Amino acid sequence: MSAMTVTSINALMEQLYLKYQQKPWTETLKLVHFCMDKPLRCPVSNDPGSPLLLCMEKIQRTLNAKSLFSMMNRLESLSRQKGLNSHVSPSGTTCYITSDMFYIEVQLEKDGNVIDAKLAHLGEAPVICDDLVEHLSEMKAKGYLALQSLEKDLYSMSLLDRTQDVNRVTEVLHGKVGHLVPRTGGTPTNIEFYISPYQILEAELNPGSQVCGAKIDVTVEGTDMLHKLPLSPLLDSQPGEDGNPAFLPLTDELSMDLSAYFLLKFHQPFPMSSSSIEEIQRLTGIQITGLKLAPLYELIVQSTLKEKGSEDLFTHKSRFFVSLPDSPKHCYFINTGSAKSDLAGALVSKIPFTHPKCVPDVIEILRHQMAYNSLISSCVSEKHTNEDDSELLYFEVAPHKNTSFSVFFLHPMKENLACVIIDVVTSREVQCSLHLNPRDPTLNSSDGFISRAVKRCMSVPVVMRAIFRNAAKVEADSKMQVDTKQKPEPACEQITDLNSLEESPSVAGHQDLVVTDKQSVPDSPKENLSTAKSEALGDNMEKSNPTVSMETLCRVEESTSTAITEAVMKDM
Fold it and tell me: The Mediator complex subunit Med1 domain covers which part of the protein (predicted)?
């Protein structure tokens, strides 16, 4: 039987050769085009893997679209591959690619060159699109309706508690869903949820500049599992008893089981602690897949260096040199910890969810993580060697517990270790405490002063420079008292330096945004800090709480952002 089959095939091929050997190539080409355009009646042809369909698609990809006719064929072939319909206008120069939720209008010149491409959703006017996002041509009608309803709910939430004079920065840092930018054409809806103090000041000093904080895109993606997604807006017009947004129940009339879920997508993988990831998964009820646990600080360092274009500089020692004006150079040792601890983390690229009610809480978690990451990354720089052998101040940054970390350093006037513990309670609240050996002199920096300084600049190096400046003033006053044998006049030393910090100075590696009293800092012993020394500090370390008068605190709170900007521009 097999021999007979081979003989029959050979005979058939010989007849084909004889039939077409006298025909010109142009007729053969027309026949191929005709076969590609003609609907195939065999059911098996609907299978994407069928040999005939694959062969036809391969021929279409091989043919160069050098004319209007071939370009139309190319567009129609692509439409079929994506499961879309297509037809040509009576003029023969416009191709319409249609589905039950949108259509694309492609206008062509007579030589086949594309003049324009427009995208129109149901009930909307066509919009000129420079980029047509791939997922739009693969998304089903119900998935698009679900995305539309989500976008409407997010927009409605962005209007809650919103005043007419609210600015973008306030929305970014305090809005329930951050600063929301609706979808336009092929660009998805995006949410800006965090912006640093340095970026805020940069925007104030450069009106019209495009200073952007951390953003996420809002989209929908197909999955292998069914998820109940809303097909109409769910936000209730009346808020809940606690004042938070209230939502209608997700009934069968308002939702449908779809093989898809919503996504918050990061532009770059975002380092998150394992506890933050678990909290988000609890809120959304969906596991974030594809995560690889690693020490959180290691991920933050790698991500920061990648943003600076220097990711190849990461070493196991994690030693970085930070230069600041009017200060000795800082050397930071970052203790990355272990991947098995609570301070382990992972790089997150997208967060799946199915209901709009979880978005505000997820945004707040992301803000909190971003504030924590910003403080750690402020100690990271592209420089990992002391090129000029200049004077150094040594610091070690180590995880403490939960949302806090410790910064160890040598006391400016003694040989003992000192420590500042920084606890990032929320994205808007930071609590700090300074710990010294009880026998060491004060550094004249209260916990409140350090906390306000951190909140103002979100930069560890700038805050540590302020502490050393205050300590230098204490030492200078002590020497003056010994020399003159007279009591110094009452003065509030913290106010002078706090004013220098309340101008929102730059993060590490940037030039100071405000130049204040330029005083040199006394030499510090050039000695590496170690974990062993940190442990030796142990129970002998107690909290330093210098007395701060009510007048001092009142004067501190009177500083405003307007005064900050004026001081910056004056010094520039």
Answer: 136-380
